[in-house]
Amino acid sequence: MLKSIEDSPLYRIANPRSFAFFGASNNFMSMGSIMLSSLLGGGFEGPIYPVHPKEELVQGLKAYRSVKDLPVAPDLAVLVLPTDIVNRTLEECGRKGIRRAIVVSGGFKEVGDRGVDLEKEMVRVAQEYDIRLIGPNCLGVTNPHHKMNPTPFPYEGSPGFIGLVSQSGSFVTQMFDYLKHLGLGFSTAFSVGNQANIDLVDCLAYLGACPHTKVIALYVEGLKRGRAFVETARSIIPEKPIVALYVGGSESGRRAGFSHTGAMAGPDRLYDGIFRQSGVIRAASLIEMFDYCWVLGTQPLAKGGRVVIQTHSGGPGATAADACGRAGLEMPPLAPETAAKLSPYVPSTGSLNNPLDLTFNKNPMDFFGPIPKILLEDPNADMLLVYFLMPLMKMQAMMENFKMTPEKAKEVGVQMIDGGSQAFTDLLQTYRKPIVGYTWRNLDEEMPLALMSKGIPVFTGPERAAGALGALLRYPALRDKIVRSVQAEGAGAADAGSD
Amino acid sequence: MLKSIEDSPLYRIANPRSFAFFGASNNFMSMGSIMLSSLLGGGFEGPIYPVHPKEELVQGLKAYRSVKDLPVAPDLAVLVLPTDIVNRTLEECGRKGIRRAIVVSGGFKEVGDRGVDLEKEMVRVAQEYDIRLIGPNCLGVTNPHHKMNPTPFPYEGSPGFIGLVSQSGSFVTQMFDYLKHLGLGFSTAFSVGNQANIDLVDCLAYLGACPHTKVIALYVEGLKRGRAFVETARSIIPEKPIVALYVGGSESGRRAGFSHTGAMAGPDRLYDGIFRQSGVIRAASLIEMFDYCWVLGTQPLAKGGRVVIQTHSGGPGATAADACGRAGLEMPPLAPETAAKLSPYVPSTGSLNNPLDLTFNKNPMDFFGPIPKILLEDPNADMLLVYFLMPLMKMQAMMENFKMTPEKAKEVGVQMIDGGSQAFTDLLQTYRKPIVGYTWRNLDEEMPLALMSKGIPVFTGPERAAGALGALLRYPALRDKIVRSVQAEGAGAADAGSD
After folding, report:
1. Mutation test of the interface with chain A: which of B264, B322, B346, B362, choosing the one with the most A Cβ atoms within 10 A?
2. Please, where in chain A does CATH 3.40.50.261 lie?
3. Is the pTM of this model over 0.80?
C-alpha cells in the first residue's frame, strides 16, 4: 500500500494546482466546452489556461494559441481534442514540462486498427516526456474535496467517502445524482478509459491511501494486471473495504465490454477467484455496489449475523425475515428479558417475536427511542433492521384533523422527524451495532431524508437492506482472513530469514 | 373462471352501494376514524351509516346507536371494533339483513388460543346469516374505479390495471404511493387477513373476471386451498397473467408469516411446483412483482427473447448486456441492413454493435425517433431496451448557456420531452414490440415521468429492466402450455365421452 497519496502518479491528476485545457471553446455544444464549464462551475480555485487556436477568451478566461505560449507549465493538461491531434498536442505538453494529463478523446484502441497504433504512439510519447496520463477514451477525474470536476456533468452533492474506479465514464457522472439523492458523494472518482498509461490498479492504490476514502467501489469490464490487482487490494483490505461490479463474466457482457474499452474479460469463475483472493466483495449490480458502500461507510461492522427486525406491520416484517434468511443472516428469538422490557410498549395485537411486530404504538416516538434501544441491548442482536412506514407524516395529517393549525402541525411534525431520526443516530453511537431501514415509500419524504442525512441508510425494499447487512458481515471476515494470511507469510519469511 | 364479477361473493364487498361503518368516531387517533375519513376523502358516492353508541354525528354523518336503527340494510358492513364485540355486532348485522362485511379487527386466529375459538364463532355466525366476509385482521378492500377506499391510507393515484390479493394490509396501502410514483395504480386490491370466510382464491377468481384488471399480483404467506388455487389460476392464465411473491419458503419467512396471519407455509420447492402448475410467475421481491405487472400491463408480449440495447454510453450498455445475458435473454447482432440504415446517425466514436452505443448524436431527437425505429424494424429484434441518460435536460442547460432565455429554453425543453416520449409511444403502437427504459437518475425528472405516463416503463438499473423483459417472454410460454394442456384434457374428455 502507498504510504501517502502524494507518492501516487495520480496525485497531481486528482489534486492539480493548475490546468491546461485543450478543446474548450465558446461553442457550448462541444464536449470540451461543457467540461470546462463544469470545472468552472464546480468552483476550482487554481488557474486554468485554455488553449485555443483562434479565440482570445474562452468562457471568460484568457486563451493561449499554443501550449508553448503558456506562462507556466500547469500541473495537469486536459485534452478533449479530435483524435488526430491528440498525440501531437501531448508531445507539446511534454516539451513545455507538463507531466500529468487526462485524455478524454476517443478513437484509440477501442476502435481497433489504426486506433491501436495511435494508442501505442501515445504511450511512447508519454514515456519519452515522463508524462503520466489517464485515458484515452475517458471522462477523467472528479475530486469534490479539491473542488475539481472537469467531467461533463455538474457535481452538486457534498464531498463524500466513496472512492470509485470505473471503466465507464457514465458510472462516474451518472452517479453524482444517484448518490446525492441518498445523501452520499464521492471522495474521488476515476474514469480510466483505455488505461493506456495509468490503470485501474494505480487508481485503486491511490484510493487505498486517500484519507477521504472510507470504502472503494470498482466497475470492472476486465482486468489488465491480475497479480498487481490482487496484491494491491490485499494491501488495502486491512484498512478499508473494496466492492466490485464485474460485467465481463457473461458472454454478452464480455462482448459489450470489449467493444466499449477493449477490455479483455474472463469467465465469472476466474474473477470470483481473483476477488476472493483479494478480499474484494463482488456486487451483482451498480445499485448493490453502492448499497454495500453505503453501509460500509456509515455503519459499524457486524459482530455476527443475527438480525432483529422492528416493524409495525406484518407483511413487511415477513418479507424482511424472508430476505434476511435468503441473505444468510440469522433471526434469533428475542431474549426473555428483552420481551419483558418490551411488553409495556407492545399492544395486544402485536407480536413479541422476531420480527417484532408492534402493529402500532400509542406514543409514536417510542418507535424511534425506547423500543430500538431495548432491541439493541438484546445480547442476541448483532444488527437492527427497521421498517419505516413513515407514521410521522401520517401523524401530522391527524394532528391537522385534530384541529391543530397546519403551521403548528407542521412544526410538531418537523420536531418529531428531527427527534426521531436523531434518536436512531444516538443509538448507533451508543451501541455500535448496525442500524438500517427499509421502506417502499418515496425516499424524498422528510423522514427517510432525515434518517439518511444522519447516517442511517434507508433502502427501497428489505432485500436490498438484507444484502447490505450481509456486506457488514462479509467484509470483516475477508479482512481477518487476509490479515492472518499476511501474518503467516510474514512469519514464514521471518523463519526463512533466521535460517 | 367466473363469467362475471357479479357472480362473486366479493362483488358487493368491492362494489358496495352503501356502508354500515362500525368503530369510527370523532376521535381522529382511532383506526376506525382514520378509515372512515379515508373512505370519505376518497369521494365514495353512496350513503354511509356510522354506528356509534353515543355520538349523534360521526365526521359530519348522522350516526346510529345500533345497527337495528339503520333505515336500510346497507350492502357492506365495515367492522373496526374491539375483538370482544366483533361477533356480536356481526350477528346484529346478520339479523338486519346485511350480507357482506369487512372485519378489520385483529385478535383472532393470529394470536392463538382464545382467538382461534373467536374466529370459529365468527365463521359460524357468518354461515348462520349467510354473510360473506373478508378478514378478520385485514385492511379491507380498495377499488379506485368505484371510489372506494376504506383503508387507513388515502389513495391518491389514478385507478389502474393491477389487481392485488395480499396477505398483508400494508402491501395494499403502502403500494398506493409506490405505484403512483410510477404512474400506475390498482384496479382493485384485497387485504385478506386471516381468510376466515373468503380467501385468496376467491379474490383471485374475482380479479380474473374484473374488467379493469389486466394483470394480477399476489402476496402469499401460505395457501390454504392448493388445489382450488391451481384450478382458479389455470382458468385465468389464458386471459391474463398472474405474478406472485411467496415469502414462506425460507425458515425465517415461514415463522414470520405464521405469527402474522397464522398462514401455513411450505418449502420453496412445493410452492414453485404449485406456481408452475398454475402458470403463475414467481417474483423474488415486491419490487420485482410490480415490475412484472408494469410491463405485462403496458407492453405487448414478446415474440422471442432477442433484445437490442440502445445506449449513448458504454458502461450502461455493458451492464445491460450482462444483465440481459444473466436473465436468459439473447443479444443478437444487428442485421446488416440495420447497420447500414443506422450509420448516418452514429458518430465515429460509436459502435454499430448490440448494444448500439451512439456515444452521442448530433440531433438529440434522433435518439427518440429515427434510431429506435430502425432498431425495431430489425427482424432480429424482439424487444428494445433503452438507456435514458436524460440528455434533454442537459440540452436545456446548454440552451441557456447558448444565450436562450430560461423561459424559452424551458419551453423548448418541454417540447423535446413531449416529442421524445411521444415518439417512443408511437413506435410501441406501430411495431408492437416491447420497449422499456433504464436509468440511474431520479425517476422524478421530467423525461422519465413523461415516458412512464405514456406507457414506457423506466427502471432503476438494467437488472430490473432485464428481469421485466423476461416476464414478457415467460407469460406467453406459460399461457400456451396451459391452453394446450386444457385442450388436451378437453379432447381426452371428449374421447372418453364418445366411448
Report:
1. B322
2. 5-296, 301-475
3. yes
